[in-house]
Amino acid sequence: MRAPSTHLANLDLNLLVSLRELLRERNVTRAAARVGVTQPAASAALSRLRRHFDDELLVRHAGGYVLTPLAAQLADQVEGVCAAAERLFGTGHRFDPTTSRRSFSLLVADYTIAVLGTALSSALADRAPGVELRLRLVHESFSNDIGERIRLIDGMVAPAAPRFDRPDLRSVHLFADRWVLLLDAASPAAEEDLTPARLAVLPWIVPFAPDRGFSTAAPLTRQLARLGVEPDTRVRVESYLAVPHLVAGTDRVALVQDRLARDVAPRLGLVTRECPRVDDEERPTGIEERLWWHADHDSDPAHQWLRALLVELTARL
């Protein structure tokens, strides 16, 4: 079969929106309502997309539809492409949040949602009711192609890291936090002197732990490295919010953000302890969460509004 041409002149770019909604909804009728077309029109778009990609994209399973492996791969790509197209054609225009139907896409950790999500969602509902917010969870071990990834979205909330030191990236301070040790209140270790030597032999819950070795690329593992602790990791999890639930009822320990610990510790019977000092050094450094965006977005009025909103909301934390 002849490979389909990918030259833009040969493509119906309206299919991008249809593809995005079909992959989001996994339902032709709901996708049609989202795009604002009839159900037969959405079905016709799906047929065209299937021919173009030579793939079913959506297949029936247990009374519904699931994505094919190719469709799952396309899902992230089409979100970025549509967001970039919206920014491209909106650049230079005045942005009115009260009437805009703009879509904003942010990469955030689940911890960030716990800290900022309620305030951000409430502010958007009040000030920009037609705006769509898409939050995509990012973990600390994501690929190093940050420049290209962030170009296709509105921004990312994360602490500074060496890989963000690029001339095409911008950032602004949002809020600060610090690392604390988290233990079950009934754990014998909760009453002990938690020296680096003692921490080295305790069992650990570690979010976003590398599969092999002990990388210091991520903020959390950098803190462990400063303590000289290579954790005896018993549970790895791709989530910060899950960590306290995995510590509860065990003799295990974790290093977590203080804002998260203060929110959940009383409910789960957990206690926090200060990180130990190493010789005469200060305790592990604090956390500075920043909003990162690509320089291409600097002059976009909608993006400027979003940046100002995030700075305003986090100033109240």
TrEMBL record:
The keyword Transmembrane helix does not apply. Keywords: DNA-binding, Transcription, Transcription regulation. PROSITE patterns: HTH_LYSR (PS50931). CDD domains: PBP2_Nitroaromatics_like. Residues 11-68 form the HTH lysR-type domain. GO terms for molecular function: DNA binding; DNA-binding transcription factor activity. It comes from the Bacteria. The keyword Transcription regulation applies. Pfam families: HTH_1, LysR_substrate. Gene3D superfamilies: Periplasmic binding protein-like II, Winged helix-like DNA-binding domain superfamily/Winged helix DNA-binding domain. Belongs to the LysR transcriptional regulatory family. This is DNA-binding transcriptional LysR family regulator. It comes from Actinomycetospora corticicola.
